[in-house]
């Protein structure tokens, strides 16, 4: 509710002393709706005739008239205040509860909790029996699975052991064969080495013999050359001596 009033400096007379404007707007009061509870009974907390206002409306109208408001304006303002106060009191009373109503709600809640507790006990027993049966079933399945795993493990262990033995024998045979090949290669190498040394000795002997033969031949050729040279020199001297004698 809004009022637009233009007052003079003294606060008692209207501007132009002729007009008075009152603008009223309807106000929507939003009431809180109580939540629905379990077996809740609606109880009227306080009768309407016992809900008293907190101020005197007649005194308020008189006070407003003494302040310069017209009687219709004062009554309208007081009526709006009464409406607002009543709405606020309704809201407050709806959020309040009496002791009797509280005890009834507590008893209903305890009864509901007892029924829930009984249901929980029954459900717990049923669930416990179901869990026990499921546990026994899972235990049997686990034992079967354990025995199956042990059988598979023994089978895999035996196969692995057999494979390891076969691999060891194969590696031993391979090692023996490689050792034989190595011995044969070593023997062949030593034999070839001995043959090469023998060939080298034969070649060395032949080379020594050839060198000695060449030295002997060279010495004989040297002697022959010296002899031929000596014969040639003596022949030349004899011819020269003969020519010399002939000229004399």
UniProtKB/TrEMBL annotation:
Major location (coarse): mitochondrion
The UniProt transmembrane annotation reads 228-247
InterPro entries for the chain: CCDC90-like
Q: Which Pfam families match?
A: CCDC90-like (PF07798)
Keywords from the UniProt entry: Coiled coil, Membrane, Mitochondrion, Transmembrane, Transmembrane helix
Q: Does the keyword Secreted apply?
A: no
Question: Localized where?
Answer: Mitochondrion membrane
The chain's coiled-coil residues are 128-162
Keyword Mitochondrion included in the entry's annotation: yes
Matching entries from PANTHER family are given as:
COILED-COIL DOMAIN-CONTAINING PROTEIN 90B, MITOCHONDRIAL, PROTEIN FMP32, MITOCHONDRIAL
- Family designation: Belongs to the CCDC90 family.
Instruction: Please report the name of this protein according to its UniProt entry.
Output: Coiled-coil domain containing 90B
Q: What are the leading ranks of the lineage?
A: Eukaryota, Metazoa, Chordata, Craniata, Vertebrata
């Amino acid at each position: 509710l809004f009022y637009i009033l233009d007052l003079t400096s003294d606060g008692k007379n209207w501007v132009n002393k002729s007009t008075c404007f009152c603008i009223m707007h309807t106000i929507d009061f939003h009431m809180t709706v109580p939540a629905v509870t379990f077996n809740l009974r609606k109880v009227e907390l306080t009768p309407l005739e016992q809900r008293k206002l907190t101020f005197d409306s007649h005194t308020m109208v008189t006070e407003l008239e003494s302040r310069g408001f017209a009687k219709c304006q004062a009554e309208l303002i007081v009526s709006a205040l009464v409406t607002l106060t009543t709405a606020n009191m309704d809201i407050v009373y709806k959020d309040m509860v009496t002791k009797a109503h509280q005890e009834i709600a507590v008893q209903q809640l305890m009864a509901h909790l007892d029924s829930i507790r009984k249901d929980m006990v029954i459900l717990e027993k049923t669930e416990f029996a179901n869990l026990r049966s499921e546990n026994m079933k899972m235990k049997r399945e686990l034992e079967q699975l354990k025995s199956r795993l042990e059988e598979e493990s023994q089978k895999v262990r035996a196969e692995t052991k057999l494979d390891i033995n076969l691999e060891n024998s194969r590696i031993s045979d391979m090692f023996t064969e490689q050792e034989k090949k190595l011995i044969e290669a070593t023997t062949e190498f030593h034999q070839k080495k001995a043959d090469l040394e023998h060939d080298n000795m034969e070649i060395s002997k032949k080379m020594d013999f050839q060198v000695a033969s060449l030295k002997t031949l060279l010495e004989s050729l040297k002697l022959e050359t010296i002899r031929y040279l000596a014969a040639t020199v003596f022949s030349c001297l004899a011819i020269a001596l003969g020519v010399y004698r002939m000229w004399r």
